[in-house]
Amino acid sequence: MRIVRDYEYVDPADRGASAAIGNFDGVHLGHQAVIDIARRRGAEIGAPLGVLTFEPHPREYFAPDAAPFRLMSRETRAHRLEKLGVARLYELNFNAALSALTPEVFARNVLSEGLGLRHVVVGRDFCFGKGRAGDASDLARFGAEMGFGVTVADLLEGQRGEVSSTAIRKALSAGRPRDAAAMLGHWHRIDGPVEGGEQRGRDLGYPTANMSIAGLHPPKFGVYAVLVDVLDGPHAGAYHGAASIGVRPMFDGQMPNLETYLFDFSGDLYGADLSVALVDFLRLEETFDSLDSFIAQMDADCARAREILSGL
Question: What is the 3 state secondary structure string of 33-67?
Answer without folding.
Answer: HHHHHHHHHHHHHCCCEEEEEEECCHHHHHCCCCC
